[in-house]
Amino acid sequence: MLKARAMRDIASARAFTERLYAAHHSEIYAYLARMLRDDELAADLTQETFVKAYRAYDTLEDHNRARAWLYQIAGRTALDELRRRKIVRFVPWTGESRGTASSAEDQVLRLRLSADLERALLRIPPRQRQALLLSELHDLSGLELADALGVSHVAARALLTRGRESLRQALAMERAKAALEDDARERVTARLPIDRRDN
Amino acid sequence: MRGRIDSHAKYRELIAARLDKPLTRVELRTLTSHLKKCAACQTIEADYRSQRSLMRGLAQPIPPRDLWARTSAGLDREVARDFRAQKWRRHIARGTRTAGPSTAVLTAIAAVGVSAALALLQLAPVVGPVASVAAGPTPLRVNPYQIAMLGQSASDVAIYQLDVNQVCPASGTLDCVPNQHFVRTPISLPSGVRAGKVAMNSQGSQLAFVGNKSGKDVIAVVSIPQGNKGKNNSNDAQATDSPDGPAQIAAEKTKSPNGITGPELVATDPPVTDDDGDQPSAPPASAVPGLAVLSILDNVQSAGAPPDWSPSGDILAFSAMPDDGSTGPDVYIWSPGDAKATQITSDHGSFFASWSNNRIVISRITAGSTRPHDFVIDPTSLEQRSVSGPQLWLPTVNTQRTQAIGWFGQLDTSSLLPSLGSGALYLMDWASVDPWAPSAQEAGSTDESDNAGADASGQTSSPTPDQDSGDQQTPTPHASSGASAAPTASSSPSDTQAPNASNSISDPDSPDDGAPAQVPASLVPLEPDRDPGASPVVDWQARWSSDGQVLGVWIADSAGSSWGRLEVLAVDPSTKRISDGDPLLPMTMAKRGFSLGGSQVAWVGPLSSSSNDNLDGELRIRTWGSDGDGGLRLQAPEQEEVTPAS
Fold first, then answer.
1. Per-residue pLDDT for B534 more than 80?
2. Is the dihedral of CA B622, B625, B630, B633 positive or negative?
3. CA atoms of B47 and B55, how far apart (whole Å)
4. Cα–Cα distance measured from residue B77 to residue B219, given in angstroms and rounded to the nearest whole number
5. In this structure, which long-range contacts are made by residues B40-45, counting pairs with CB atoms below 8 Å and at least 24 apart in sequence?
6. Cβ separation of B60 and A97 shorter than 8 Å?
7. What is the pLDDT of residue B492?
8. Does A16 touch chain B (CB under 8 A)?
9. Does this model's pTM top 0.80?
10. pLDDT greater at residue B569 or residue B442
11. How confident is residue A194, by pLDDT bands cut at 50, 70 and 90?
12. Each residue of B263-283: pLDDT tens digit?
């Protein structure tokens, strides 16, 4: 009997994990890719997240909170990886952009702003980055956010607030740096003969 | 050194908090009052809103296509580990000592891509447990049945056959049965040809497939020697050239150098298609030696359901159209001994759907119509009868001719390759519409004259393939005599384009005005929860078990995708509905192509180990019966170690 029940547990855990995967793998992958800025690593850690979810199946008390629970596992997995590696590789985003079609100029500007933002995101502390990503891009509610971050509701809000301010300052720095680079480029271009300037 | 106190910090917190939740009245009043007089905080508020907008505009990372395969492999390893740990605990509890939990069964293989080609023979129920092997869960014994599959790599194509008589308990590791080895028989497929859509007849003596090279299809058949079943495949057959031509297919037995009777060989080389010409040519020198392949129709594009054998295994049916798109598809049949396939329709709008016992079900789209009409053709007399009632697209009928499953929805027939739009799979009571049912013999109509291009007179009076196989002028798509209708459509579950529908398939009694039709009440949705508009089925395969009580349905992840989801369901013959309760095989990731029996299903799933990137997948078997569920996981063998057939 014990054997049969244990076997069922294994099967249940596996089936449950597959259902979780079907429902959430895209967002978990996106979360990890944004946290780590490395698509391949994100894929590895997505796999690891679901394997960990399988292992921790017995610890999930409320299946209605499985999504936040999964984000918590993914977040911890990402933080572990960041601590282990102490490096973050820059890999350009791939995939489709949200939103409606825009003009070429808009797209160039958008790309530029996105690049600034992505660099700025990397500059802020990982826990704040987690809070921002989960709140802004993954639409986690207050309770879910707290669950996913593994902290109290108040602490989650505090992380989010600090994250916004950190990102604002980091973004300002990135823009200032970009402006300086643009300025330097323009000065170089101005010294070139007209026929050698970029159009 | 401590920084100075930021008097605006509390306002920034309120600004940030306001983005996530409404502020209290007091907080709101405080913040509003401050913002009126503080330009810096106004800027901060604008920055926060801007960065939110920017963040939400970030590109969405797309998961890699193999993410599930990798994750599934990881989960499989965990499940296996859990099971081994559980077994170890049981041993400890019993005070016994046992060897390590090694359950390695499969030999490593490389460079063999499983091409989703399976055939399952001699299906039988689970009959009970057998003695345990040294380690791992106790296998369940099943009555022997055979699985065949086609494996191919860039330099090698072979048929793999395996006799299965034991499986593992489904809840544990699926590799508890040792010494599982495939019989490997290479075939001499011309280089560059990729084979797919494989069908083996019920005797296991003929294997048909659709080969493709440079965008052109060839329908080909391989005669499988019955003598090689269980032979050590170190005696792999070698191709021999023969001047006797294709009439001697499967008629010649050869002895291998060591005197052991080898496979029967096809005595002809397969004609192949030139890259730029229409004429068949000899296979290139680089062709892989092995069983010869007989091309029965070339320079075509496969259409409709994949080729399939009659239940008796002596007639192959399929549909194809000229590869240049000069006409639409027609239905062909072929029997062992025929040189070429025989075209049995000439309306250029007929798509092979399935067999209805010993007759052929086709879906036909006539010129100017946007809706299909189903017919059933007797391959002997070539008499065809119209199906009444709701018209499914490519219905798959069970052998008992009691039920069918097919697609119903919006179909765009404006191009040569029609597109499946909003639609889903439905079950229908075939017995009530079968024009060849005893009750319908009198009422059933032969092909109506208004079925454009049906060529009723020609077909009903034409000789049967058996009568005229020796000297009949086999029509070819390029020389399609009697073509009376312009091609109207060509479609198959696997040849559909992205959903983009404008017209509809509907009851033929309703006017063909292109308007979407309501699903007739007599159709039962296979997946009641599926929204055909938001999540249409655009590519699928369906099979019935020979007893008609099990239905397997594979639905592609997207049109043309080789991967999709497979589910096996029990069917209640009394209600003709899907039985309540858990499916026999819950929806699982599978490659296109599976075989189904009354108590087994075999498919190719993602690799459970990523140790070999050359592999395309692994063979999985699931069984069910009164003694519980079983399963088996196998990789195609690299080493030529053969288990003699029982």
1. yes
2. negative
3. 12
4. 40
5. B40/B8, B41/B8, B41/B11, B41/B12, B41/B15, B44/A168, B44/B8, B44/B12, B44/B15, B45/B15
6. yes
7. 37
8. no
9. no
10. B569
11. low
12. 222 222 333 333 333 333 333
Q: Token digits for B278?
A: 């229409």
Q: Decide the pairing of beta strands B183-188 and B291-292.
A: parallel
- Give the angle subtended at the CA of A164 by the CAs of A159 and A166, to the nearest 5°: 90
pLDDT average, residue stretch B453-471: 35
Q: Is B44 on the interface with A (CB under 8 A)?
A: yes
Candidate from B20, B58, B74 with C-beta closest to A51:
B74
Element (H, E) at A188: helix A153-191
Q: Once rounded to an integer, what is the mean pLDDT over residues B350-376?
A: 90
Please, how many CA atoms are within 13 Å of residue B322, restricted to the half-sphere of its CB?
A: 18
Distance CA B445, CA B376 (A): 11
> What single-letter amino acid sits at B557?
D
- Opening angle at CA B512, ends B508 and B518, nearest 5: 70
**Residue B134 φ/ψ, nearest 5 degrees:** -60, -40
Q: Which is more confidently placed, B156 or B330?
A: B330
Q: Of the candidates B323, B312, B290, which has an alpha carbon nearest to the alpha carbon of residue B211?
A: B323
Spacing of C-alpha A105 from chain mean position: 27
Residues in CB range of A142: below 8 A, 6 or more apart: A153, A156, A157, B20, B21
pLDDT at A192: 65
Are A55 and B67 an interchain contact pair (Cβ–Cβ within 8 Å)? no
CB atoms within 10 A of CB B98: 13
pLDDT above 90 coverage of chain B, percent: 16
CA B128, distance to chain mean position in Å, is 30
| Residues β-bridged to residue B605 | B618
Q: Is the pLDDT of residue B185 over 70?
A: yes
* Burial of B384 (C-beta count, 10 Å sphere; 0-12/13-18/19+): buried
> What are the chain A neighbours of B564 within 8 Å (beta carbons)?
none
3-state secondary structure of B589: strand
Higher pLDDT among residues B161 and A157, named by residue? A157
Q: How far apart are CA A11 and CA A17, in angstroms?
A: 10
Contact (CB<8Å) B67/A17: no
**Cα distance between residue A100 and residue A98, in whole Å:** 7
Among the partner residues A46, A98, A135, nearest to B60 by beta-carbon distance = A98
A132 vs B55: CB contact, 8 Å cut-off? yes
Q: Please tell me if residue B32 touches chain A, with a CB cutoff of 8 Å.
A: no
Cβ contacts below 8 Å, chain A against chain B, sum to 133
- Tell me which of A25, A50, A94, A111 to substitute to probe the interface with B (most B C-beta atoms closer than 10 Å): A50
Nearest to B189 by CA among B117, B137, B119: B117
Can you tell me the ipTM of this complex?
0.76
B547 pLDDT above the threshold of 80: yes
Q: Which two tokens stand for residue B183?
A: 């019989």
Minimal C-alpha gap between B412 and chain A (Å): 27
CB A33 within 8 A of CB A26: no
**φ, ψ dihedrals at B379, nearest 5°:** -70, -15
- Split at pLDDT 50, 70, 90, the class of B240 is very low
Helix axes B9-20, B39-56, angle to 10 degrees: 40
CA angle (B381, B384, B389) in 5-degree steps: 150
Tokens of A84: 């282990």
**Residue-averaged pLDDT of chain B:** 68
CB proximity B94 to A under 8 Å: no
State the DSSP H helix or E strand holding residue B115, giving kind and residue range, or none if neither: strand B113-121
